[in-house]
Amino acid sequence: MAVQSTISQIQSAGATAQQQASQKSTTSTLGKDDFLKLLTAQLQQQDPTQPMDNTAFVAQLAQFSTLEQMSNTNDTLTKMLAAQGSALQTTAASMIGKTAVFNTDQVVLEADKPAAITANLSQNAGNVTIAIQNSSGETVRTMQMGPANAGANHYSWDGHDDNGNTLAPGTYTVQVTAADLSGNPISLTQNGSAQITGVTFDSGTTGSISFLAGGSTVQLSDISELDE
């Protein structure tokens, strides 16, 4: 789908930008001008009775030419990196307003609105159990969801505790467990969904990208799906 392609493009561009920035930061600070100064000083300090061998001199000139070409290439890559960073920012900003599905074990409960919970099961389950914990780590709601098929399974929590009381809006931790018909545990991953309301570039145009969604900070690498 198009939005999934957008995520892949941003992830690929971000990884390339970070790699290029890392390579650039570790490059030696000795430039072509410094190399030319060293070569000139060597000629000035050479013994007139034993001048530099022509072959060695030509070899050093060839090295200088190579260094100059590498320097020019580096300048070009730097300009390309800056342009790529700007495009990356524009693409990431276009995700604002979309609903993101991302890896998380937390849900944000809003007033008079059920919280969405998604569990991706590795195989069919005989029963799925969802436990909701408050900020103190206390389990306030336990729900037996019954059998479920392998893949994405979507659930909702109405915001009530086990006694039917309405809980205060806020962030809650969700623990989803699943077992097969024999009672053996099944591996799974948990997802949440929220509308993206902001984007942050942690270290300029080449830094990692994070999004503000549902009051939480979500890393780009944790987003698995985008919905309009």
CATH architecture of the largest domain: Sandwich
Q: Give the ordered list of helices and strands.
A: HHHEEEEEEEEEEE
- Beta-strand residue percentage: 35-45%
Q: What is the CA-CA span between the terminal residues?
A: 11 Å
Per CATH, the class of the largest domain reads Mainly Beta
Please name the CATH topology of the largest domain: Immunoglobulin-like
Structural class of the secondary structure composition?
A: alpha+beta
pLDDT < 50 runs, ≥5 residues = none
Sheet with the most strands?
A: 7 strands, antiparallel
Backbone CA Rg: 29 Å
Number of domains: 2
How many β strands by DSSP?
11
Number of helices: 3
Helix content: 25-40%
Mean model confidence by pLDDT:
79
Structural shape: elongated
Brief digest:
With 228 residues, the protein is α+β, with helices and mostly antiparallel strands. 34% of the residues lie in helices and 37% in strands. It folds into two domains: 2-23 and 32-41 and 52-93; 100-194, Sandwich (Immunoglobulin-like), CATH 2.60.40.
